[in-house]
Amino acid sequence: KIILNKDPNYPKISIVTPSYNQAEILERTILSVLNQNYPNLEYIIIDGGSTDGSIEIIKRYEKYLAYWISEKDEGQSDAINKGFRKSTGEILAWLNSDDLYLMNTLHKVNEAFMINKEINFLYGHMLLIEKEDNIIRRLYTVPQTYHSYIYDGGNIFQGTVFWKRKILYKYGMLDKGLKLAMEYKLFDNFFQNEKGYFVNDILAAYRLHKKAKSHTAPYKLHLAELNSIRKIKSNVILKIYYRFRRIFYYCVFGNLLKNINEKLKTFQRLKS
Question: What is the pTM of this model?
Fold first, then answer.
């Protein structure tokens, strides 16, 4: 009822989900968006022509969607761009079909934008989860500048980034030529030219599974794409500096020991 009865007093948030043959986990992604109970949600799903039952799942929630389509596309970036072109929201984001939003994420995003009128994008922490939603560990970020974003390995988690519509068109859509690093090119522009905001909260969950592109794609390809778009080349001294900067913030936020403990547990689990 909340989703169907739009409340224009809330800024419209448009979420785009690109999907292709993810029937096993797609429904959980869809529900994580719809169950936000955000009063002015525009949810768009762009399917790449799935043949595994995904279409039946999408149709199950069709009345809650602003738009959906299933057709062949030129890849993930092309699908996301299609969704953004159909969107009309003031605030934009995309959520991949194997990831999740945590409860109340959209309300927290709205609140942050309302309190900080001057910001154009925001970002926060993320969970790393298994196929069955079990938490592997928490992925923490810190307040970032353009240089720390570049030199600290792009320590921003795509599923937690939300931005105002006006800056998407300012820098253009996602580059269809990039298969793994499409968000880095967009976020590079955000951090270099726009005022961002760090939300010290966990906003989304990234699912680690065998079919995920981050699991199947060669690391060298990912690195090659990053090097092709970044305006600043690697600098060992600055990398070390910004890495220590992140550790300092972890200490301030109280996350350092928890993060180390979770990394050790993950390592032991993978080893066993």
Answer: 0.88
Chain centroid to CA 182: how far? 12
Confidence of residue 244 (pLDDT cuts 50, 70, 90): confident
156-194 residues labelled b (16+ CB within 10 A) or e (exposed): bbbbbbbbbbebbeebebbbbebebbbbbbbbbbbbeeb
Question: Would you state the pLDDT for residue 40?
Answer: 98
pLDDT band at residue 55 using 50, 70 and 90 as cut-offs? very high
> Closest Cα to residue 148, out of 244, 271, 72?
244
Q: What are phi and psi of 19, to 5 degrees?
A: -150, 145
HSE at residue 113, side-chain half, CA atoms within 13 A, is 22
Label each residue of 220-271 as H, E or C: HHHHHHHHHHCCCCCCHHHHHHHHHHHHHHHHHHCCHHHHHHHHHHHHHHHH
Asked if 33 contacts 15 with a C-beta cutoff of 8 angstroms, the reply is yes
- Give CA–CA dist 61/17, Å, rounded: 14
**Residues 129, 135, 137, 139, CA torsion sign:** positive
236 or 164, greater pLDDT: 164
Locate 235 and state its tokens: 């600098």
- What are 136-161's pLDDT values in tens digits? 888 888 888 888 888 876 678 999 99
Kindly state the DSSP code that residue 11 receives in the 8-state scheme: P
